[in-house]
Amino acid sequence: MDKANSIIKKQSGRKFLTVLLSILLCIVVFIGVLTGLMLSDPNAEKLNSEITRSDELGKKVLAAAAVGKEYSATQDEVNSYMEYRRMLDSNSPTAKGAVIGRTVLSFQKDNSADAYIAVQFKEKNFDVSVHFIPSFDTDKGQLVMNVQAIKIGRLPLNPSWAMALLKDALPKEFSVNGTELRKKFSIIEFNYSGISANINISDLRIENSLLKIKTKSSLNVSLFGISP
Questions:
Q1: Pick from 101, 139, 134, 146: which is nearest to 207 by CA?
Q2: 177 in helix, strand or coil?
Q3: Where are the domains of the chain?
Q4: Closest Cα to residue 125, out of 94, 85, 153?
């Protein structure tokens, strides 16, 4: 009887070990698949494409603001200006140790946009894509991005979960409310050949695959640091 019990215990032990090893193997495979999906770079062509750095968008918005008109910018104009500003800033934005590199925007016909973001974290490069609908909160002077979808590489994340995770990791000028990402964006500053200007934004949206930028009537200009 004791011998039979001993055999049963050994068999049970082997079965438990087999099940445990199987579970561990599944976990390893699962982690491997997730890592592979996250490190996969489906937007490499967009993020590595040659983008001409240009400040033309700033000049055009300034000219439109001077006569009280709304300006319609193409995604190429916006991406060129963003690249121009990124090269001017020696410090890349960071979020909990992650360094945010180039960001490329793509405007959609349904008035939404896709942001493709190069992120470096612990010496690994990740491609993050965010699908969102932009709007502008005039009362608070904030750009509002209603996030519809987020992916790291090819791995989709639940927007609510991802935004909650990012809530305390973003730079202080950002805030999160559910799936809304907000950024203080009431004034755009431009500097050209000794002339600096502050333009007050009253509306910003995507319409017909164009970024519509509307300004308030007030336009503050200073020449060589001397305000009028």
A1: 134
A2: strand
A3: 1-39, 44-223
A4: 153
What is the residue-averaged pLDDT of the chain? Answer: 76
Q: Is 19 helix (H, G, I), strand (E, B) or coil?
A: helix
**pLDDT bracket for residue 107 (50, 70, 90):** very high
pLDDT of residue 73: 93
* C-alpha distances in Å from residue 191, one per residue of 49, 107, 222: 27, 27, 10
pLDDT surpassing 60 at residue 25? no
71, β-bridge pairs: 213
Question: In whole angstroms, what is the distance from residue 40 CA to residue 125 CA?
Answer: 10
Give the range among 37-46, 64-73, 90-99, 173-182 with minimum mean pLDDT.
37-46
Q: Which position has the token pair 């001017």?
A: 88
